[in-house]
Design brief:
heterodimer; A: 390 residues; alpha/beta; Aspartate Aminotransferase, domain 2; seven-stranded mixed sheet; three-stranded antiparallel sheet; B: Arc Repressor Mutant, subunit A; Alpha-Beta Plaits; 2 domains; two-stranded antiparallel ribbon; 21% strand; extended
Chain lengths: 390, 163
């Protein structure tokens, strides 16, 4: 006999299971040939061939050993050039960056390096699901701040100011945002910077969707005066280069922070996958064209889906980043979970309840438009039919 | 048409079945202006046609395609054009390009049988005045055409359910 309950960490046990488990069970058991999923948030493109080929070539050459903990120097130099070229940010390849296993690891080691028992971490919601649990695992306290549709789901200075307490250690800034598609422009970031300037709060800026910004260039909070010294920028290859399965990301930031994060990375992970790192070197050297090609394609679908949603009678603000629509379904009178369950069972289209992304998500659903135009078109016909029937 | 924005053409080249309404939405333009622009392209022969790409090997029709290198002696005044014209007028000729390098014209033709193709080469092509030589290469298998693959790549089966 063994008592697993007693054996397990109360902290891990305390992490709440997803509130929409029932919906995922439904999704998992969905077995219909005409099913369309707008549920999974990843590019529908396969990684461009020249990048895959570079990975294959590295394997053929026998580059199968560990790399240095921080990542291949060759790759770090490319990341340094990339950050300067694409976002105007300057980072030293030696000491100011770590190559991680996806952006997710970057978020994890940043939180672990900064947050102590009882420290508060401000997390705007709706947002990607990982921040809260990662904070809880280190004994931190997530403080969720609901962004609002009327503000286009941007974080405002007032919302931030009201959430700050003497225990606030970290602000997570997840923009461009999953699931809302919201972005933060210079004026928004300047307002946030104004609140942070005289504090000791670190910013964890999750910019994994930075390259998927429409109608303008992405701006990082690290570009705002005085913010560079307090910002960790998390980015990666998954979304920009359609490389989700390669599990490769990176964090750039002040030396003092990176140095401590490196310890966690080196003991927990050792180094990011070597094959992926070689592929990533090629991506950064010759992949700018791929980024603009894919971004343009997402933009077509973004416009298409937005118009269809509005034609169908749903309210939806125009998302300017990532590849998600976050329409309101309040007019149907249904909860997000009910809406998604019925839409799935009756019309075989999977979309995700807004509540999966935290408070403030009720009344909304997330649709990922990284899907073929034919799929999107069919899904919208079914949505139209579904809404008319209600 | 100078200063032309080729975005619309690029989209149509990828999928000619997109309607003006769909194209308008994707490009953030109104349907009418897209229709007008397409009509203009058709009038100016910038859009030549809207054919479907078909894998005939999956049908009952067994067609044979050949790529024929043709060497010609250019003619005073007309260069290669007059001979090219005499070749492309044949219904069987699918495409015709003037090439740099070791031969002059590349002709592709599709016929019902090997014999039909061979017949065309020696009875029609090789005898044209000015044609000095041909080399016929039969196409054994088509892998890709106009960015489309003839075989469907496998899809990754197991994927994360939710991110």
């Amino acid at each position: 006999m063994i008592d697993y309950e007693a054996a397990l960490s109360p902290r891990v046990k305390g992490i709440a299971p997803s509130g929409i488990r029932k919906f995922f069970d439904l999704l998992e058991n969905m077995d219909s040939s005409d099913a369309i999923s707008l549920g999974v948030g990843e590019p529908d493109f396969v990684t461009p061939w020249h990048i895959r080929d570079a990975g294959v070539y590295a394997l053929e050459k026998g580059f199968t050993k560990y790399t240095s903990n921080a990542g291949l120097m060759e790759l770090r130099k490319e990341i340094s050039k990339y950050m300067l070229r694409r976002f105007g940010l300057s980072y030293d390849p030696a000491g100011q960056m770590v190559v991680t296993v996806g952006g997710s690891e970057g978020i994890d080691i940043a939180v672990r390096a900064i947050v102590n028992q009882g420290d508060e971490v401000i997390i705007p919601v709706p947002s990607f699901v990982c921040y809260g649990p990662i904070v809880e695992l280190v004994g931190g306290v997530p403080v969720f701040v609901e962004t609002r549709a009327e503000n286009e789901f941007r974080l405002t200075a007032d919302e931030l100011r009201n959430a700050i307490t003497p225990r606030t250690k970290l602000l997570v800034l997840p923009f461009p945002n999953n699931p809302t598609g919201a972005i933060m422009e210079r004026k928004d970031l300047e307002a946030i910077a104004e609140v942070l300037r005289d504090t000791n709060i670190i910013v964890l800026s999750d910019e994994i969707y930075a390259e998927l910004t429409y109608g303008g260039r992405h701006m990082s909070i690290a570009n705002i005066p005085d913010m560079y010294i307090r910002t960790l920028v998390v980015n990666g290859f998954s979304k920009a280069y359609a490389m989700t399965g390669w599990r490769l990301g990176f964090v750039c930031g002040p030396r003092e922070l990176i140095k401590q994060m490196m310890k966690i990375h080196q003991y927990a992970i050792m180094c990011a996958p070597t094959t992926s790192q070689y592929a990533a070197v090629e991506a950064m050297r010759a992949g700018d064209g791929d980024i603009s090609m894919m971004c343009k394609d997402y933009d077509y679908r973004r416009r298409f889906l937005l118009e269809k949603l509005r034609d169908a009678g749903l309210t939806c603000f125009e998302p300017r980043g990532a590849f998600y629509m976050f329409p309101s379904i309040q007019s149907t009178g249904m909860s997000s979970a009910d809406f998604c369950a019925r839409f799935l069972t009756e019309e075989h289209v999977a979309v995700i309840p807004g509540t999966a992304f935290g408070a403030g998500g009720e009344g909304f659903v997330r649709m990922c438009y990284a899907s073929s135009l034919a799929n999107l078109s069919e899904a919208m016909d079914r949505l139209d039919r579904f809404l008319k029937r209600l | 048409m100078t200063g032309m924005n080729t975005e619309l053409l690029t989209l149509l080249e990828k999928d000619a079945r997109l309607t003006p309404a769909q194209l308008g939405t994707m490009l953030g333009r109104d349907e009418q202006s897209v229709s007008d622009e397409i009509a203009e392209y058709e009038r100016n022969h910038i859009i030549l046609g809207y054919p479907a790409l078909i894998d005939w090997t999956k049908t009952d029709d067994e067609l044979v395609t050949a790529l024929i290198e043709v060497r010609i002696s250019p003619q005073r005044g007309d260069g290669f054009d007059r001979i090219a014209e005499r070749i492309y007028q044949y219904e069987e000729v699918e495409s015709l390009y003037l090439m740099s390098g070791s031969y002059d014209l590349a002709v592709t033709i599709t016929g019902r049988s090997l014999r039909a193709v061979a017949e065309f080469v020696h009875a029609r092509l090789a005898v044209i005045d000015g044609v000095t030589g041909t080399a016929t290469h039969f196409i054994l298998k088509k892998y890709k055409e106009k960015h489309h693959l003839y075989t469907k790549l496998p899809e990754q089966e197991e994927r994360v359910l939710f991110v």
